[in-house]
Amino acid sequence: MSENVIISPTQYADYPALMPPEELAAMQRQAQRDPDGFWLQQAKRVHWHRKPRHGFKGSFSGDVSISWFEDGLLNASVCCIDKHLTDKADQVALISHREGQAEAEKLTYAMLHERVCRLSNALVHLGVEEGHRVAICLPMISEAVVAMLACARIGAVHVVLFGGFSAEGIAERIVDSGAVAVITASESTRGNKIVPFKAIMDEALCKAGADSGVRAVLVVRTSDAPVPMLPGRDYDFHDFVDSFEADFVPVVMRAEAPLFMLYTSGSTGKPKAVVHSTGGYMVWAAYTMGMVYHHQPGDVMWCTADVAWITGHTSVVYGPLANGGTTMISDSLPSYPYPGRWLDLVDEHKVTMLFTAPTAVRAMMADGDDVVNARKLDSLRLLGVAGEPISPDAWLWYHDVVGKKRCPVVDTWWQTETAGIVLGPLPGVQALKPGSASTPLPGLEMVIADTQGRPVQGPAEGSLCIARSWPGQARTIWKDHARFCQTYFSMVPGHYFTGDGARRDADGYYWITGRMDDVINIAGHRLGTAEVEDALAADHRIVESAAVGIPHPVKGQALAVFVIQRQNVATELTEKGISRLVSGMLGRYATPEAVYLVPDLPRTRSGKIVRRLLRKIASGEVENLGDLSSLNDPTIVQMLCDRVWSHM
Ligand code: WTA
Question: Could you tell me which residue ranges the AMP-binding enzyme C-terminal domain spans (predicted)?
Fold first, then answer.
């Protein structure tokens, strides 16, 4: 029933809407009529050393090429810091809350400038040059933001790695990216667990061995615990960096120079790094965040994403800072050490815009309304979500209970590859439909394609594609442009294919139906099932495995793994052991929810595993298994159902 709710913008009469609906419509028309003119106008949102005169150049066909603002020159750290020093030097740019510390750290734009400059000098002193890659693997502490911006200032390409990756996963990414330096921490706390960042990094660098080009490791000491340091390679971050000069002349970059690379999961086993440009990305971050979250004086934006994800890049760092806002980070968990922890932080720091993943909304919902009602939450003006589908029920709970029906909820759809919001409503301007990511921002031409890859008009369901380039689009996959073309541009010729399915309703609103490839989304974290299967294949006791996504009440999806064990091995595998194997190889976030040791898997006559069936069996959806006659051995299905049921 809640699928049909429509909330009119008049419900938020006091909301500081960005523009009247007619202006939005005019903007849509202008973007359609003259895309280059439109984007060149949007490019004025950021500071250029040389303003661009050209918009888009390139093609979505053949050997895809994408370039924006090619004659423009800029530096991303200037867009985020120096641009604001004349009128906002003393405004807080970054609030960094750390669990267990009495006072949050607050950095004004002037202080952020100073810290970024010192680190820029330090990195250059260590031999980091323009175009070099620097791996950043840090918890949510101010140094993470400083590190990204310092890389940008010297023209180095940052590669932020998630602290939840295993040593194996970090090693693989450090080698693939060719990072020359690493910025990490001694350790961090996650709830009641200690995450030993430095020990994991040491193990990763040891695994990477001679394949790693890392010459220096800067270590932020986050506690008094002793940290082993390798002389000549490891430096105590503050001891080393704080003595450098507090000024650094930014390196002027071409618009197309890469700003960062970010690893994400796809349908093949190897994680891929998508590459984002400086000019297009900065314009895009400023535009998307400016349109949906436009900062007002006094606003505090808290996007709870980890900096290692695209949401952390755009909604924590580049978007809010490009727009001169105040951004907040925290290493806390929504309900630890007690339910309502995040809500207390909202009250304490007077957060006005809260942006999180649907998983966190579901977790807060499970804690109950009383927890929310015991807090004031009167500073909030806007609530947002991204990263995974949110059900109309969870949306309405967020809106009614957390937002007290006063704050619009923006459900924004985007991807690591799109770098910023693609689908999302303008709060106070457009009607909201709980469960729908609304409509495209001006300048984005969305297409729904049918099973033959043909664009369809009007209300329709199919694969979600984008017909024309946008400035923040990923330019390539690092060292594998062929894979870039194949993954994103071969499905619907001349279009970018998102990997998602979607339905467009009669009002032009989009409803995401989920991934169409073998990527699953666990608590907003993308994981390729092939990555899991590749990790398991490395163990000689495993003949074959199949990983599938199953629904999970809080995480959205969880991982289920079916494993065929080799006969007569000396030490047999247990289901727990397999679970540990996966988390050890990929990271804690990939720990399977269920592991089934099975004698065989359902296959077609040609031997292909029928994943569709495994998904249904693992989810307990056994009423509608479909036609089994094409299977090589249909009896296997009953055996698998019995196996799964005995666990449920
Ligand atoms: C999914 C996260 C439904 C989608 C920003 C996409 C969503 C993938 C939404 C990208 C949403 C993202 N509703 N699904 N509002 N936003 N997704 O690269 O499947 O970590 O392809 O970027 O998350 O995940 P990524």
Answer: 531-608
**What pLDDT does residue 643 have?**
87
Ligand 1 atom nearest residue 514's Cα: 19
With beta carbons less than 8 A apart as the criterion, state whether 167 and 133 touch. Answer: no
- CA triplet 54, 55, 56: central angle to 5 degrees? 120
Range list for CATH 3.30.300.30 in the chain:
514-645
Q: Domain 11-68+277-475+504-512 belongs to what architecture?
A: 3-Layer(aba) Sandwich (3.40)
Best mutation site among 512, 513, 525 for ligand 1 pocket (most ligand atoms within 8 Å of CB): 512
Q: How far is the CA of 301 from the centre of ligand 1 (A)?
A: 20
Please report the pLDDT score of residue 230 as a whole number.
Answer: 97
- Could you tell me if 586 and 600 are in contact, meaning their C-beta atoms sit under 8 angstroms apart? no
| Helix and strand element counts for the chain (H, E) | 21, 31
DSSP string for residues in 571-596: S---HHHHHHHHHHHHBGGG--SEEE
What CA–CA distances, in Å, run from 74 to 69, 275, 338, 408, 487? 11, 18, 45, 35, 30
Q: What is the position in ligand 1's atom list of the atom closest to the CA of 437?
A: 15
In order, the DSSP letters of 472-484 are T---EETT-HHHH
90-251 folds as Rossmann fold (3.40.50)
Res 3: pLDDT: 63
Residue 238 near residue 34, CB atoms below 8 Å? no
CB 327 within 8 A of CB 96: no
Ligand 1 atom at minimum distance from 525 CA: 20
Given the CA of residue 389, which atom of ligand 1 is nearest to it? 3
Q: Give pTM, 2 decimals.
A: 0.95
Q: What is the rounded (10 degree) CA torsion for 287, 289, 292, 295?
A: -110
Residues lining ligand 1, judged by CB closer than 6 Å? 264, 309-311, 386-389, 411-416, 437, 498-500, 512, 515, 521, 526
421 Cα–ligand 1 center, Å: 10
The residue behind tokens 């968990």 is 333
Tens digit of each residue's pLDDT (9 = 90 or more) over 600-626:
999 988 888 898 899 999 998 888 888
The parts of the chain modelled with pLDDT lower than 70 are 1-3, 648
Question: Which residue of 500, 511, 515, 527 sits with most ligand 1 atoms within 8 Å of its CB, as the best mutation to test the pocket?
Answer: 500
Give me the interface pTM, i.e. the ipTM. Answer: 1.00
Strand partners, 418: none
The residues of the chain that CATH labels 3.40.50.12780 are 11-68+277-475+504-512
DSSP letter at 61?
Answer: S
User: What's the gap in Å between 387 CA and the centre of ligand 1?
Assistant: 4
Residue nearest to atom 3 of ligand 1 (CA): 389
In this structure, the residue with its CA closest to atom 12 of ligand 1 is 387
Ligand 1 centroid–CA 119 distance in Å is: 33
Side chain identity, residue 495: H
The answer as to CATH 3.40.640.10 being correct for domain 514-645 is: no
Distance, in Å, from the CA atom of 155 to the CA atom of 178, rounded to the nearest integer, reads: 16
Summarised one tens digit per residue, pLDDT across range 419-432 is: 999 999 999 999 99
Confirm if 565 and 581 have CB atoms less than 8 A apart. no
